[in-house]
Design a protein that fits this description.
Blueprint: H1 28-43, H2 54-57, H3 62-81, H4 92-95, H5 103-120, H6 129-134, H7 137-153, H8 160-165, H9 171-185, H10 187-193, H11 208-221, H12 226-232, H13 235-240, H14 246-261, H15 269-274, H16 278-295, H17 320-336, H18 349-534, H19 546-568
Helix pairs in contact: 1-7, 1-16, 3-5, 7-16, 9-16, 11-14, 11-16, 18-19
């Protein structure tokens, strides 16, 4: 198993940590989260997938399988450019469940990706599919860092085997290797402008180191036309002799790197100014190193035809192996240009030297043939054991597939039962909600009834008081009625007495009337007699004397009635 990170750089959950006392004790998780999310989006660009948050990006394992496919494809492309053989593998996207619906299918996708990483030699200590499915941020950061280290940084490193196999170097060797590369390519800048690059964090805050790396790579890109390069970037103008702030310088550098060198913007200028977090900066610098290997290939590979070396550009130093081979080839070149010279292989010191070297090489070749035969025998034995293991694994795989189908069927049944139970639960929830609403309405009605009852109690008290008052009024009225009744009885008795008196008075009046009539008749007779005596010739008729008598009668009648009314009172 490959060991990528130091044990002291990994906590109990397998998460990369930042050493104590650094500037990023509080926010290193946020910085790594932003950087690693940008890195993941760069890799998934071909799949048209954009990730916003690592905690939710790998929950179903789909994006994780697509990410590994892109990384493996990138490594194969690099090996093809270096003319190295690469083993063809089936893509994870063809094996995974592209639309997982239940947690077990999502975890199967995650396990598929983790098993592929483990087979490639990536250490996954402390990283589990359950934690990734739960969205544990630190576990997701650890997983992405190990992919970056294996596929991004070490895939282009000459020290990949040392880094991957050493259990005590881990990230430190990668950091040291990156730092050595940076110091090597910008040594002329550090000497000329008087600055140093001693780490992968604080040395990059002012933009001098990053600007030097960009300037070096830009000069390699624009070898034949530096004036064209100065349109986009000039180290002295844009970094050394500028009045811009550090944040503005870093922002310009990141923009130039993206536009001219096709290096993605993984780190913000503000983070660079504060001193970037180490793992984020290593990830960012790995793109510069990859670009440098593309623009400045080693002497063994030769200079690409697309970027011919200009006469003014400095020549890279030759490796010892290359210089040795040239020293062996130079004499024959000289001899081929002088065919007229006589040549004796026995007396020629160079030929005798060459024969000795050829014998040594033949002896080495024979040893190599023996070693190759032994390796072939070992390889045959390994292939035989592998075939046996393959047969056993195929049998186990078939049984596992059958068991998996059974489990899937059971899971489908459980899913159906779960859906039915969920529907039933939803119905019960709706009924409970209706019951709660009814209960609430009853409570409201009860409250209104209580309030009405209180009001009615108050009104009953008022009615009681009113009844008491009416009772008292009734008693008073009864007393008054009793008094009135007594008064009426007294009045009745007085009325009866008055009626008796009236009756008696009427009788008296009748008698009086008769007396009056008699007196009137007598008076009439007397008056007639007197008139006859006075006027014996002219007499007055009787009907002319009746109005006077009637007037006298009515006078006495009115006088009698008024007298009776006075008596009735």
């Amino acid at each position: 198993m490959a060991h990528i990170l130091l044990q002291e750089e990994i906590n109990s959950t397998g998460t990369p940590t930042t050493p104590r006392g650094s500037k990023f004790d509080s926010n290193w998780v946020d910085v790594q989260h932003v950087t690693f999310t940008q890195w993941v989006n760069v890799q998934l660009r071909k799949e048209n997938i954009t990730v916003e948050d690592l905690t939710s990006a790998f929950v179903d394992g789909v994006n994780l399988c697509y990410l590994l496919d892109q990384l493996k494809s990138k490594v194969k492309t690099k090996k093809k450019k270096k003319k190295q053989n690469s083993i063809s593998e089936t893509t994870l996207s063809s094996k995974m469940n592209k639309k997982p619906k239940i947690p077990i299918q999502m975890i199967e996708n995650i396990n598929l990706a983790l098993n592929s990483m483990a087979q490639s030699g990536i250490n996954l200590t402390g990283i589990t599919s359950d934690e990734i499915h739960k969205g544990n941020l630190k576990i997701c950061l650890a997983l992405v860092w190990r992919m970056i280290l294996f596929y991004q940084i070490n895939s282009s490193s000459d020290e990949q085997s040392d880094v991957m196999e050493s259990p005590t170097k881990g990230k430190v060797s990668v950091e040291k290797s990156m730092l050595n590369w940076v110091q090597d390519i910008i040594s002329e800048y550090t000497e000329k402008y008087g600055f140093s690059v001693g780490d992968i964090s604080s040395s990059w805050s002012d933009g001098k180191a990053l600007g030097a790396v960009i300037d070096k790579l830009m000069k390699e890109k624009f070898r034949n036309d530096l004036e064209e390069m100065f349109k986009y970037f000039n180290y002295e103008r844009d970094v050394i002799n500028t009045t811009k702030s550090k944040s503005e310088i870093n922002e310009h550098l990141v923009s130039v790197a993206n536009d001219q060198l096709e290096i993605p913007n993984l780190i913000d200028s503000d983070i660079l100014e504060k001193g970037p977090e180490k793992l984020s900066m290593l990830t960012y610098l790995s793109y510069f190193k990859e670009k440098g290997e593309e623009l400045m290939p080693s002497a063994e590979e030769g200079t690409p035809a697309s970027n011919p070396v200009s006469p003014k550009s400095p020549r890279s130093p030759r490796s010892p192996r290359l210089s040795h081979s040239l020293s062996m080839e130079e004499p024959p070149v000289i001899l081929t240009h002088a065919p007229e010279l006589l040549h004796d292989e026995k007396t020629c010191p160079f030929c005798s030297n060459l024969n000795i070297q050829l014998e040594l090489k033949l002896a080495e070749c024979s040893k190599l043939e023996i070693d190759i035969n032994e390796k072939k025998q070992q390889l045959e034995a390994v292939e035989q054991s592998l075939n046996e293991v393959k047969e056993n694994s195929e049998q186990k795989l078939t049984t596992l597939i059958e068991e998996k189908q059974k489990v899937v069927q059971e899971v489908e049944k459980l899913t159906e039962e779960l859906s039915q139970a969920t529907n039933q639960l939803e119905k019960e929830k709706e009924e409970i909600e209706k019951i709660r609403e009814t209960e609430q309405s009853l409570k409201n009605n009860l409250e209104s009834v209580k309030s009405e009852l209180i009001i009615s109690n108050n009104s009953v008290d008022d009615l009681r008081r009113e009844v008491e008052r009416l009772n008292s009024v009734e008693l008073e009225l009864k007393e008054k009625l009793e008094i009135e009744r007594k008064e009426k009885e007294a009045l009745k008795q007085n009325f009866e007495k008055s009626i008796e008196k009236i009756n008696s008075y009427e009788e008296k009046l009748k008698s009086f009337q008769e007396q009056v009539e008699n007196s009137i008749v007598a008076v009439d007779e007397q008056s007639e007699s007197k008139e006859e005596e006075l006027n014996p010739i002219e007499t007055t008729p009787r009907n002319q004397r009746e109005p006077v008598a009637n007037m006298v009668y009515y006078f006495f009648a009115v006088l009698g009635v008024s007298f009776l009314l006075e008596l009735s009172k």
